[in-house]
Amino acid sequence: MFSKAGTFTLGSRTVNRLGYGAMQLAGPGVFGPPKDRDAALAVLRAAVSSGVNHIDTSDFYGPHITNQLIREALHPYPGDLVIVTKIGARRGADASWLLAMSPAELTKAVHDNLRNLGVDVLDVVNLRIMIDPHRPAEGSIEAPLTVLAELQQRGLVRHIGLSHVTSSQIAEGRQICEIVCVQNHYNLAHRDDDGLIDRLAHDDIAYVPYFPLGGFTPLQSSTLSNVAARLRATPMQVALAWLLRRSSNIVVIPGTSSVVHLRENVAAADLALPDAALQSLNQIAHGSN
User: Fold this and answer.
1) The predicted structure's pLDDT at residue 287
2) What's this model's pTM, rounded to 2 decimal places?
3) Is the domain 7-286 a CATH 3.20.20.100 member?
4) Torsion on CA atoms 159, 20, 64, 100, rounded to nearest 10
5) φ, ψ at 248 (rounded to 5°)
6) Which residue out of 61, 77, 207, 210 is catalytically annotated?
7) Residue 288: pLDDT above 60?
8) Is 61 an active-site residue?
9) Domain ranges of the chain
């Protein structure tokens, strides 16, 4: 499955480059239970049956909801399934997103993920840096990452990644422990990390972009839609296919609460982008049509 998209390694684990992001399985605002629990379980089972072996989640989605859904739908887990989670934030009673970077909060988050996923060790844990909740911002990550590295040494975490980070924070992090993946905002229209992606590829570190369709202007969306129409594909399929083509270390995790949309996203792994389409898509970052 996904032979055209290929695979990439996250430390000792190998994943298909087209995965699944579970965030949308929680209720509105990523808070509370889904409107249709059975539908959420069906999406997870359909993802795995379609060949997805990489699920991205966090115990602060819901909170606790997505991990509990993953466990209910898929436990005991297939041997090749890699579940990647993240820590560094928590949810307030009013659904707010709050910083949770103290040693006690980070340790609790790891144990919450272990319990709700029903596992003894977490495959990959991303440390989400919240210096600025809206964009990566400079500042040392040594203190929280050292806590996570200690939890790794205790055998609770297999591999470590970083999310919402700058290049200098990645360099700092790699002095503390091995970093197997980086999660940042990146897509056709938002390409601040172009240079970073290439540097990570050189070092065999996965880059996992989120918001594959986020931040597009109307003109950029129109360009994408026109390319998709010519290829008889959806805009999301084209955006995902472009990401997979952009660099071999990019691993995508599109999320959806719909089995139909899930299957459309999975089909993006086999979508070929002609040179003319690539030229049009590459102009999107410059706001051209």
Assistant:
1) 58
2) 0.96
3) yes
4) 50
5) -70, -15
6) 61
7) no
8) yes
9) 7-286
